[in-house]
Fold these 2 entries.
Entry 1:
Amino acid sequence: MLSPSARFSALALLAIVAPAAIVAVLGYVSIRQWEASSELLYREQARDMAAMAAEKVEMTLRRTQDAFLDRVQAAVQAGPPSERAIDGLLADAPLIRRLYLVGPRGDLLYPRAWREGDQAIFGPYVSATALHKLVREGRRDVVAGNQVCLALLTARSGAPVVAAFLRDVETLRRDVFETTLGTFESPTIIAVLDHEGRTVYSRAPIGDAQRLSSVAFRDALPDWRLAIYQSPGASPRQAVRRQVMLFTGALGILVAVIVAGIVATWRLIRRETEMARLKSDFVANVSHDLRTPLSVIRMFGETLEMGRVTDEARRQEYYRVITREGERLSRLIDNVLDFSRIEGGRRTYDMAPTPVEPLVRSTLEAFAYPLAQQGFKVEVGVAADLPDVVMAADAVGQALANLVDNVIKYSAGDRAIAIDVRTADERLVIAVSDRGIGIAREEHARIFEKFYRVGRSDTQGRRGSGVGLALVRHVAESHGGDVTVESEPGQGSCFTLRLPLGGA
Ligand code: ADP
């Protein structure tokens, strides 16, 4: 049969620790899966975002260019383009650099002449054959050779006119990329790479950030790409790892709290079990203590009543035994009643200045018979001119009686009692020493606990309820004093009661 605490531990293990372990394992497995799938999801999201961002950039670029080309188309439609009018339009469009308007036969309509080196750049795209092809395809704007943009316009006569121009990369960066991509809400880094893979724009320094995804722009920026980089510390793996650490930490704390709870409850149960055992011992001890003097009184009383004792000296002896056992009974009952008052918080103390020596001597007097009968050597030392001390005389007398009673109970071969009364540091000090069985060091604190009795082998056969010293301590502390013990097994013990001279 398992003890209650062992049963509790087994239950706690089953009910709490096992589910906690299962949660830990499941948590670990699902976190691993989560880590893998979130990586995948993260990359997919990056790809979607790159496509969306590229589209937005192209739209903005087209809108700016179209607005400009619409204005040029209007100017061309109005008649042969005036240089001043086109210059004015160019001044308002910082994105457009080096505009040339070319007629269907490759004739330059604006400006009057090619600027230095430009014919080499634009020439191949605005030759009659190239224009012919462009007209055949009917496309309004085309980017050729990564730099040159071509747009097909119509002159007043209905003849095709080609607008050829370059874009200003700085304006492209600032007015298109920055305004469009700068507003994207994402922890990643968005960058634009030109046809040679050079970074034209990036929202934050790329450093050695890992590229998550990249998409090509369409017609408006052929061969250019929009790339998404992972910001340092923002990888899904790192985020998951942080979560794992958090989860593990939380689980660890949870398990620690559970274990602490189990240990605390287990201790409580052990204490309760111990207390229950002590209480039942107490009841048995008190009953036994009551029965012994009662049967002695009865036996001697009956013998006397029957008039069988004729010898006067024996009769006197019997009376003394009855009186002594009666006193012992009273002491025992007083102890138990006081203890119950203390437990119920009802014990009160009537303090009054009290002469100490008479109190000590009368207490000892009550034990004169057993002390003499068991051959105790008694020594009493009371300091001269002790002042009266403010105390509850009956309570202190009872505490002292408990100490003397213990000396009688726990002395074996060397029977001696010494009571020393003096003052020190504004306190009355009463020391009761013996040369009895003594108390092991580790028991010194516990013997003052209620119901506690030292290991059965030592106290076996000695009557006692286990509340005597608890009472002594209560009396001492209620007076603002204390009680201490010095003792070695086999050497004897010395209990010292210290009370303030002026009362509590
Ligand atoms: P009890 O009724 O058992 O005497 P107490 O509270 O008076 O209860 O004492 C608690 C325990 O302390 C005792 O059971 C005994 O083991 C130990 N004890 C008390 N006084 C002495 C002493 N003078 N010498 C040896 N052991 C003592």
Note: The radius of gyration is 54 Å.
Entry 2:
Amino acid sequence: MAGVTVDTRHWIGGERLDSAATFTDRSPIDGTPLAEIARGGAEEARAAVAAARAAFPGWAATPPPERARLLHAIADGVDARLEDLAAVETADNGALLRSHRRGVMPRAAHNLRFFADRLLALGHDDFTTRGHTNHVTWDPAGPAALITPWNAPLMLATWKIGPALAAGDPVVLKPAEWTPLTASLFADITAEAGLPPGVFNVLQGYGAEAGEPLVSDADIRRVSFTGSVPTARRIARAAAEHLVPTSFELGGKSPLLVFADADLDLAADLAVEQYDNAGQVCLAATRLLVEEPVRDAFLERFLHRARALVQGDPREEATGIGPTIHPRHLERVDGFVRRALAAGATALLGGGPHTELTGRTGGAYYRPTLLAGVAQDSEIVQEEVFGPVLTLQTFTTEDEAVALANGTRFGLAATLATGDRDRADRVAARLVAGTVWTNCFFVRDLAAPFGGSRASGMGREGGDWSFDFYCDLKNTVTAPK
Ligand code: ADP
């Protein structure tokens, strides 16, 4: 890990805490062991929640400008350790080092600064009813459990940590077991910034062993989760026991609609972008829906770009696509593809693991893949693969395009490539999606609401919507003098 030392014990109440057992964290780049990680269970979860609970009155009473100052200090710490964080994250999850350096880690710092500033700008509704004043305040809700996935570990964690801490809620973060490292480094950064003990805690371990007792704890007042649909169901059941509000950012099967009037070079660029992070992005537009007359022209441009992608070590500047997260995940991705091929699909690109690279390195490399000849009701079109696997379907009318786009149980995002603004507005209005991008992708302002419809999630975060979630709103009504 480029000489960076990470303390992989839990971080609870401002102290490092061990567990009796550990598990081995390996790099998806070459399978090498990176660290032994504390394997938390119910006891450590209880300790972490107790620490957050003990810190709650002090943190809730900390004036917003001071909370904001501390968040800025943590963000500065992220900037100061950007190289270490980027190197460790790349070793741990295999996403491109240059993206971590230039995009992901700066964004993690930005998440913290954005919510610090937003806190100070929060509007307070004051109005009068028959002479009585109504004063509406955003009160801290209490300890929050944050459960995060492995595809963008620290970035997604700060997307939750920022608003939770700004709102006055202490947090317990349970990072994904495949990518535990940057959460531990981040704990050091919070301590160096002077965050009081217990306001930020890290619980390491497996989902069922550490995550489950954490989200089931009676002292947790909010649960924010990014991950898979089956896990969301389990968490929703646990949170229901104590009537705890949950925020879920789940999977997607988002479409990219390419209309005949689109700039086809731009459309091809947008399509190839979907292989970023080896396709392990919840927002990825994995279903290419192309208007029939431009299918071949689009495909030619797409294949030209996709074949130029260099697959290999994500630490190298020339690499365009790295490994998938884990050999087990690679197997899962390949299972989807094999079943699709058996059902009659054709691989226009890739169609299997990169066996030579995987064998030589010991990593988990899957070839960028495009499958055509897929039916709308087939597994490969309906289920999230979470790998570098796209499908190609065609349409002939706008109605058909919309029906195909909306024809899964998900509703996270959609991307349109079209040269016609009226069409873009018309189609966007009919799509079931939390975000619709036209002639662009992944442009994300933190002030905008973010989340998914249907099986893609519950609730929206970003801007004041995050404060809606992490706060208990209170209205204080006072009679006239
Ligand atoms: P994936 O299938 O992408 O690994 P998961 O939804 O299983 O996604 O995991 C996302 C996060 O949820 C991880 O941090 C994982 O440890 C955690 N997790 C898994 N199961 C549970 C559970 N029952 N309760 C709480 N957290 C869980």
Note: The first helix runs from residue 42 to 61.
